[in-house]
Amino acid sequence: MSTADTLTLRRPDDFHLHVRDGQALAAVVPFSAARFARALVMPNLRPPVRTAAEALAYRDRILAVLPAGTQFTPLMSLYLTDTTAPEEVERARARGGILGFKLYPAGATTHSDAGVTDIRRVDGVLERLQETGLALQVHGEVTDARIDVFDREARFIDTVLAPLAERFPRLRIVFEHITTRAAVEFVLGARAGIAATVTPQHLLMNRNALFAGGLRPHHYCLPVLKSEADREALCAAVRSGSPRLFLGTDSAPHERATKESACGCAGIFSAHAGLELYAEAFEAIGALDRLEAFAAHHGADFYGLPRNAGQVRLVKQEWAVPSTYPFGDGTIVALRAGERIAWRMAAVEGA
Ligand code: DOR
Ligand code: ZN
Predict the structure, then answer these.
(1) Which residues are catalytic?
(2) The pLDDT of residue 113
(3) pLDDT computed for residue 12 by the predictor
(4) How many other CB atoms are there within 10 angstroms of residue 8's CB atom?
Protein backbone atom coordinates (compact mmCIF):
# COMPACT_ATOMS: atom_id res chain seq x y z
CA MET A 1 0.00 0.00 0.00
CA SER A 2 1.31 3.45 -0.71
CA THR A 3 0.26 7.03 -0.99
CA ALA A 4 2.49 9.83 -2.21
CA ASP A 5 3.99 10.28 1.25
CA THR A 6 3.72 6.86 2.87
CA LEU A 7 5.06 3.50 1.83
CA THR A 8 3.95 0.36 3.64
CA LEU A 9 5.96 -2.68 2.70
CA ARG A 10 6.36 -6.26 3.74
CA ARG A 11 9.31 -6.34 6.12
CA PRO A 12 12.45 -6.51 3.96
CA ASP A 13 15.65 -8.58 4.09
CA ASP A 14 19.24 -7.44 3.53
CA PHE A 15 20.98 -10.21 1.63
CA HIS A 16 24.49 -8.73 1.92
CA LEU A 17 25.67 -7.19 5.16
CA HIS A 18 28.92 -6.71 7.09
CA VAL A 19 28.61 -6.29 10.85
CA ARG A 20 32.19 -7.11 11.98
CA ASP A 21 32.71 -8.62 15.43
CA GLY A 22 33.43 -7.78 19.07
CA GLN A 23 32.61 -4.26 20.23
CA ALA A 24 31.62 -3.18 16.72
CA LEU A 25 28.62 -5.53 16.65
CA ALA A 26 26.62 -3.61 19.20
CA ALA A 27 27.28 -0.38 17.30
CA VAL A 28 25.94 -1.52 13.94
CA VAL A 29 23.59 -4.53 14.29
CA PRO A 30 20.72 -2.50 15.81
CA PHE A 31 20.49 -0.36 12.65
CA SER A 32 19.83 -3.42 10.50
CA ALA A 33 17.51 -5.03 13.06
CA ALA A 34 15.39 -1.87 13.14
CA ARG A 35 14.58 -2.30 9.45
CA PHE A 36 15.25 -5.76 8.13
CA ALA A 37 13.77 -9.00 9.45
CA ARG A 38 16.79 -10.98 8.26
CA ALA A 39 20.24 -10.29 6.90
CA LEU A 40 22.83 -12.46 5.22
CA VAL A 41 25.97 -11.69 7.22
CA MET A 42 29.26 -11.77 5.36
CA PRO A 43 32.06 -13.96 6.74
CA ASN A 44 35.13 -11.76 6.06
CA LEU A 45 36.24 -11.46 9.65
CA ARG A 46 39.83 -11.88 10.72
CA PRO A 47 40.24 -14.83 10.88
CA PRO A 48 37.43 -15.60 8.44
CA VAL A 49 34.30 -17.57 9.29
CA ARG A 50 35.17 -20.82 7.53
CA THR A 51 33.13 -23.56 9.15
CA ALA A 52 29.52 -24.15 10.11
CA ALA A 53 30.55 -24.25 13.76
CA GLU A 54 32.29 -20.86 13.46
CA ALA A 55 29.28 -19.38 11.68
CA LEU A 56 26.88 -20.49 14.38
CA ALA A 57 29.14 -19.10 17.11
CA TYR A 58 29.27 -15.81 15.18
CA ARG A 59 25.49 -15.84 14.82
CA ASP A 60 25.18 -16.20 18.60
CA ARG A 61 27.45 -13.19 19.14
CA ILE A 62 25.21 -11.17 16.81
CA LEU A 63 22.03 -12.31 18.54
CA ALA A 64 23.56 -11.34 21.89
CA VAL A 65 23.70 -7.64 20.93
CA LEU A 66 20.13 -7.35 19.64
CA PRO A 67 18.17 -4.70 21.51
CA ALA A 68 15.30 -6.17 23.55
CA GLY A 69 12.13 -6.54 21.54
CA THR A 70 13.75 -6.56 18.09
CA GLN A 71 12.94 -9.43 15.80
CA PHE A 72 15.92 -10.08 13.57
CA THR A 73 17.44 -13.28 12.21
CA PRO A 74 21.05 -13.33 11.03
CA LEU A 75 21.59 -15.75 8.15
CA MET A 76 25.11 -16.93 7.55
CA SER A 77 27.56 -17.50 4.70
CA LEU A 78 30.86 -19.35 5.02
CA TYR A 79 34.13 -18.02 3.67
CA LEU A 80 35.41 -20.25 0.88
CA THR A 81 39.16 -20.91 0.85
CA ASP A 82 41.45 -23.04 -1.30
CA THR A 83 41.36 -25.64 1.45
CA THR A 84 37.66 -25.72 2.37
CA ALA A 85 36.66 -29.37 2.88
CA PRO A 86 33.80 -30.43 0.57
CA GLU A 87 32.22 -32.11 3.62
CA GLU A 88 31.77 -28.66 5.16
CA VAL A 89 28.90 -28.13 2.71
CA GLU A 90 26.89 -30.98 4.25
CA ARG A 91 27.71 -29.75 7.73
CA ALA A 92 26.47 -26.29 6.77
CA ARG A 93 23.27 -27.58 5.24
CA ALA A 94 22.55 -29.81 8.22
CA ARG A 95 22.76 -26.89 10.65
CA GLY A 96 20.20 -24.68 8.90
CA GLY A 97 20.42 -20.89 8.75
CA ILE A 98 23.54 -21.06 6.57
CA LEU A 99 22.64 -20.02 3.05
CA GLY A 100 25.87 -20.73 1.24
CA PHE A 101 29.54 -19.99 0.74
CA LYS A 102 31.11 -16.68 -0.21
CA LEU A 103 33.70 -16.64 -2.94
CA TYR A 104 36.27 -13.90 -2.44
CA PRO A 105 38.93 -14.04 -5.12
CA ALA A 106 42.13 -13.73 -3.05
CA GLY A 107 43.13 -10.07 -2.81
CA ALA A 108 39.93 -8.66 -4.34
CA THR A 109 38.76 -6.65 -1.33
CA THR A 110 38.78 -6.11 2.45
CA HIS A 111 39.96 -9.22 4.32
CA SER A 112 40.06 -11.35 1.19
CA ASP A 113 43.66 -12.53 1.52
CA ALA A 114 42.45 -15.98 2.67
CA GLY A 115 40.21 -16.18 -0.40
CA VAL A 116 40.34 -18.47 -3.41
CA THR A 117 43.45 -18.23 -5.60
CA ASP A 118 42.03 -20.25 -8.50
CA ILE A 119 38.40 -21.25 -8.88
CA ARG A 120 39.33 -24.75 -10.05
CA ARG A 121 40.84 -25.47 -6.66
CA VAL A 122 37.36 -25.46 -5.12
CA ASP A 123 35.59 -27.64 -7.67
CA GLY A 124 34.92 -30.26 -4.99
CA VAL A 125 33.06 -27.74 -2.84
CA LEU A 126 31.16 -26.36 -5.83
CA GLU A 127 29.98 -29.85 -6.74
CA ARG A 128 28.57 -30.32 -3.25
CA LEU A 129 26.95 -26.90 -3.33
CA GLN A 130 25.31 -27.81 -6.60
CA GLU A 131 24.03 -31.07 -5.15
CA THR A 132 22.73 -29.61 -1.90
CA GLY A 133 21.21 -26.45 -3.38
CA LEU A 134 23.18 -24.13 -1.11
CA ALA A 135 24.25 -20.99 -2.93
CA LEU A 136 27.58 -19.55 -3.96
CA GLN A 137 27.75 -15.83 -3.17
CA VAL A 138 30.32 -14.24 -5.43
CA HIS A 139 32.47 -11.15 -5.13
CA GLY A 140 32.86 -10.75 -8.87
CA GLU A 141 36.11 -8.97 -9.65
CA VAL A 142 39.37 -10.23 -11.10
CA THR A 143 42.38 -9.39 -8.98
CA ASP A 144 45.07 -8.92 -11.64
CA ALA A 145 46.64 -5.54 -10.84
CA ARG A 146 47.20 -4.94 -14.56
CA ILE A 147 43.46 -4.86 -15.23
CA ASP A 148 41.89 -1.41 -14.95
CA VAL A 149 39.97 -1.26 -11.68
CA PHE A 150 36.82 -0.16 -13.51
CA ASP A 151 37.01 -3.21 -15.81
CA ARG A 152 37.52 -5.89 -13.17
CA GLU A 153 33.88 -6.88 -12.83
CA ALA A 154 33.31 -7.23 -16.58
CA ARG A 155 36.54 -9.21 -16.92
CA PHE A 156 35.47 -11.51 -14.10
CA ILE A 157 32.24 -12.34 -15.92
CA ASP A 158 34.10 -13.38 -19.05
CA THR A 159 36.96 -15.26 -17.47
CA VAL A 160 35.46 -16.77 -14.31
CA LEU A 161 31.72 -16.43 -13.82
CA ALA A 162 30.31 -17.37 -17.22
CA PRO A 163 32.53 -20.47 -17.51
CA LEU A 164 31.68 -21.40 -13.90
CA ALA A 165 27.94 -21.17 -14.54
CA GLU A 166 28.38 -23.53 -17.49
CA ARG A 167 30.63 -26.02 -15.74
CA PHE A 168 28.15 -26.27 -12.86
CA PRO A 169 24.81 -25.87 -14.63
CA ARG A 170 22.68 -26.31 -11.50
CA LEU A 171 24.83 -24.31 -9.08
CA ARG A 172 22.85 -21.49 -7.50
CA ILE A 173 24.88 -18.30 -7.78
CA VAL A 174 24.35 -14.82 -6.38
CA PHE A 175 26.51 -12.27 -8.14
CA GLU A 176 26.93 -9.85 -5.25
CA HIS A 177 26.78 -6.07 -5.51
CA ILE A 178 26.69 -5.78 -9.28
CA THR A 179 27.90 -2.44 -10.61
CA THR A 180 28.03 -2.52 -14.40
CA ARG A 181 25.92 -2.77 -17.51
CA ALA A 182 27.88 -5.92 -18.34
CA ALA A 183 26.79 -7.51 -15.06
CA VAL A 184 23.16 -6.52 -15.60
CA GLU A 185 23.21 -8.08 -19.06
CA PHE A 186 24.85 -11.22 -17.76
CA VAL A 187 22.41 -11.74 -14.89
CA LEU A 188 19.24 -10.93 -16.80
CA GLY A 189 20.29 -13.17 -19.67
CA ALA A 190 21.71 -16.02 -17.59
CA ARG A 191 20.36 -19.51 -17.04
CA ALA A 192 17.97 -20.19 -14.16
CA GLY A 193 19.50 -20.16 -10.70
CA ILE A 194 21.53 -16.98 -11.13
CA ALA A 195 20.62 -13.77 -9.32
CA ALA A 196 22.31 -10.61 -8.07
CA THR A 197 22.22 -8.13 -5.22
CA VAL A 198 22.30 -4.38 -5.82
CA THR A 199 23.55 -1.81 -3.27
CA PRO A 200 22.06 1.61 -2.61
CA GLN A 201 25.31 3.39 -3.44
CA HIS A 202 25.55 1.90 -6.91
CA LEU A 203 21.97 3.01 -7.66
CA LEU A 204 22.48 6.51 -6.25
CA MET A 205 25.99 7.50 -7.26
CA ASN A 206 28.47 7.24 -10.08
CA ARG A 207 32.25 7.50 -9.87
CA ASN A 208 32.20 11.29 -9.92
CA ALA A 209 31.08 10.99 -6.28
CA LEU A 210 34.59 9.79 -5.43
CA PHE A 211 36.07 13.11 -6.50
CA ALA A 212 33.31 15.68 -5.88
CA GLY A 213 35.16 18.79 -4.67
CA GLY A 214 38.06 16.64 -3.42
CA LEU A 215 38.85 13.03 -2.63
CA ARG A 216 35.89 11.35 -0.88
CA PRO A 217 37.08 8.29 1.02
CA HIS A 218 33.62 7.58 2.42
CA HIS A 219 32.39 6.93 -1.12
CA TYR A 220 35.05 4.32 -1.71
CA CYS A 221 33.87 0.72 -1.79
CA LEU A 222 34.61 -2.37 -3.83
CA PRO A 223 33.50 -2.92 -6.47
CA VAL A 224 34.22 0.78 -6.93
CA LEU A 225 31.48 3.15 -8.14
CA LYS A 226 31.18 3.04 -11.91
CA SER A 227 30.15 5.31 -14.79
CA GLU A 228 26.81 7.05 -15.18
CA ALA A 229 25.94 4.65 -18.02
CA ASP A 230 26.51 1.72 -15.68
CA ARG A 231 24.41 3.33 -12.94
CA GLU A 232 21.61 3.90 -15.43
CA ALA A 233 21.75 0.25 -16.49
CA LEU A 234 21.39 -0.84 -12.86
CA CYS A 235 18.45 1.52 -12.35
CA ALA A 236 16.72 0.29 -15.49
CA ALA A 237 17.22 -3.29 -14.38
CA VAL A 238 15.64 -2.81 -10.95
CA ARG A 239 12.86 -0.75 -12.53
CA SER A 240 12.10 -3.72 -14.81
CA GLY A 241 11.10 -5.67 -11.70
CA SER A 242 13.26 -8.67 -12.55
CA PRO A 243 12.96 -11.30 -9.81
CA ARG A 244 16.67 -12.00 -10.26
CA LEU A 245 17.60 -8.74 -8.52
CA PHE A 246 17.29 -8.13 -4.83
CA LEU A 247 18.37 -5.98 -1.94
CA GLY A 248 21.85 -6.33 -0.45
CA THR A 249 23.19 -3.16 1.09
CA ASP A 250 26.83 -4.25 1.44
CA SER A 251 26.87 -1.90 4.43
CA ALA A 252 30.52 -2.18 5.48
CA PRO A 253 31.59 -0.14 8.51
CA HIS A 254 35.19 0.95 8.97
CA GLU A 255 36.43 3.17 11.74
CA ARG A 256 36.79 6.73 10.53
CA ALA A 257 40.59 6.92 10.71
CA THR A 258 40.98 3.76 8.63
CA LYS A 259 39.05 5.37 5.80
CA GLU A 260 40.48 8.89 6.12
CA SER A 261 43.96 7.58 5.56
CA ALA A 262 46.80 7.50 3.03
CA CYS A 263 45.53 4.01 2.15
CA GLY A 264 41.87 3.99 3.07
CA CYS A 265 39.74 0.88 3.50
CA ALA A 266 36.98 0.00 1.02
CA GLY A 267 33.46 0.01 2.39
CA ILE A 268 30.44 2.29 2.70
CA PHE A 269 28.34 2.21 5.86
CA SER A 270 24.64 2.44 4.97
CA ALA A 271 22.85 0.38 7.62
CA HIS A 272 21.63 3.55 9.38
CA ALA A 273 19.37 4.12 6.35
CA GLY A 274 19.48 0.72 4.71
CA LEU A 275 15.93 0.86 3.37
CA GLU A 276 15.44 4.63 3.16
CA LEU A 277 18.28 5.04 0.66
CA TYR A 278 16.65 2.52 -1.66
CA ALA A 279 13.35 4.38 -1.35
CA GLU A 280 15.12 7.50 -2.58
CA ALA A 281 16.76 5.63 -5.42
CA PHE A 282 13.53 3.94 -6.53
CA GLU A 283 11.57 7.17 -6.27
CA ALA A 284 14.12 8.98 -8.42
CA ILE A 285 13.53 6.49 -11.23
CA GLY A 286 9.77 6.38 -10.82
CA ALA A 287 9.83 2.83 -9.50
CA LEU A 288 8.55 3.02 -5.91
CA ASP A 289 5.98 0.40 -6.86
CA ARG A 290 8.87 -2.03 -7.47
CA LEU A 291 10.54 -1.51 -4.10
CA GLU A 292 8.61 -4.06 -2.08
CA ALA A 293 9.33 -6.99 -4.36
CA PHE A 294 13.02 -6.03 -4.63
CA ALA A 295 13.36 -5.62 -0.87
CA ALA A 296 11.08 -8.32 0.49
CA HIS A 297 10.16 -10.92 -2.15
CA HIS A 298 12.87 -11.67 -4.69
CA GLY A 299 15.66 -12.56 -2.27
CA ALA A 300 13.50 -14.72 -0.03
CA ASP A 301 12.09 -16.50 -3.08
CA PHE A 302 15.56 -17.12 -4.54
CA TYR A 303 16.80 -18.64 -1.29
CA GLY A 304 13.61 -20.66 -0.75
CA LEU A 305 12.80 -18.82 2.48
CA PRO A 306 9.30 -17.76 3.51
CA ARG A 307 8.57 -14.10 2.88
CA ASN A 308 8.44 -12.14 6.14
CA ALA A 309 5.09 -11.61 7.79
CA GLY A 310 5.76 -8.20 9.36
CA GLN A 311 5.56 -4.75 7.84
CA VAL A 312 7.52 -1.53 7.77
CA ARG A 313 6.26 1.94 7.07
CA LEU A 314 8.34 4.68 5.47
CA VAL A 315 7.25 8.29 5.29
CA LYS A 316 8.47 11.01 2.93
CA GLN A 317 9.99 13.22 5.57
CA GLU A 318 13.55 14.53 5.39
CA TRP A 319 15.95 13.86 8.22
CA ALA A 320 19.56 14.84 8.82
CA VAL A 321 22.16 12.09 9.09
CA PRO A 322 24.52 12.72 12.03
CA SER A 323 28.09 13.59 11.09
CA THR A 324 29.29 10.44 12.87
CA TYR A 325 27.95 7.41 14.71
CA PRO A 326 29.81 5.70 17.59
CA PHE A 327 31.79 2.60 16.60
CA GLY A 328 33.62 0.85 19.43
CA ASP A 329 36.27 3.30 20.64
CA GLY A 330 35.93 5.39 17.50
CA THR A 331 33.33 6.57 15.01
CA ILE A 332 31.94 5.78 11.60
CA VAL A 333 31.01 8.26 8.91
CA ALA A 334 27.84 6.94 7.32
CA LEU A 335 26.61 7.45 3.77
CA ARG A 336 25.13 10.99 3.60
CA ALA A 337 26.74 12.01 6.92
CA GLY A 338 25.88 15.64 7.61
CA GLU A 339 23.37 15.62 4.75
CA ARG A 340 19.71 14.76 4.38
CA ILE A 341 17.74 11.67 3.37
CA ALA A 342 14.27 12.07 1.90
CA TRP A 343 12.56 9.05 3.46
CA ARG A 344 12.30 8.13 7.13
CA MET A 345 11.39 4.88 8.89
CA ALA A 346 8.10 5.40 10.72
CA ALA A 347 7.16 1.95 11.99
CA VAL A 348 8.25 -1.67 12.13
CA GLU A 349 5.76 -4.36 13.01
CA GLY A 350 6.33 -8.05 13.36
CA ALA A 351 9.03 -10.29 11.98
O1 DOR B 1 33.71 -2.10 -0.10
C2 DOR B 1 33.73 -3.22 0.37
N3 DOR B 1 33.81 -3.43 1.69
N4 DOR B 1 33.67 -4.27 -0.46
C5 DOR B 1 33.85 -5.51 -0.02
O6 DOR B 1 33.82 -6.41 -0.83
C7 DOR B 1 34.14 -5.79 1.40
C8 DOR B 1 33.63 -4.72 2.25
C9 DOR B 1 34.18 -4.77 3.65
O10 DOR B 1 34.17 -5.83 4.27
O11 DOR B 1 34.60 -3.72 4.16
ZN1 ZN C 1 30.41 -7.04 0.93
Answers:
(1) 250
(2) 87
(3) 98
(4) 16
Specify the 3-state DSSP secondary structure of 118: coil
C-beta of residue 310 within 8 angstroms of C-beta of residue 37: yes
CATH class of 13-306: alpha beta
Single-letter amino acid code for the residue at 318: E
Q: What is the pLDDT of residue 248?
A: 99
Task: Categorize the per-residue pLDDT at 2 as very low, low, confident or very high, splitting at 50, 70 and 90.
Answer: low
Residue nearest to atom 2 of ligand 1 (CA): 267
Cα separation, 25 vs 34, in Å, equals: 14
Q: How far apart are CA 78 and CA 111, in angstroms?
A: 14
Average pLDDT, the chain: 97
Query: Probe ligand 1: pick from 14, 18, 80, max atoms within 8 Å of CB?
Result: 18
Which of 275, 325, 326, 301 is CA-nearest to residue 14?
Answer: 275
Cα separations (Å) of 282 from 57, 74, 182, 200, 295? 37, 26, 21, 10, 11
Cα(212) to centroid of ligand 2, in Å? Answer: 24
Longest distance between any two alpha carbons in the chain, whole Å: 53
Q: What SS3 class is residue 311?
A: strand
Distance in angstroms (rounded) separating the CA atoms of residues 219 and 268: 6
Testing ligand 1's pocket by substitution, the residue of 104, 110, 113, 255 carrying the most ligand atoms inside 8 A of its CB is 110
Higher pLDDT, 155 or 109: 155
- Report how far ligand 1's centroid is from the alpha carbon of 131 (Å): 29
What is the Å distance from ligand 2's center to 253 Cα? Answer: 10
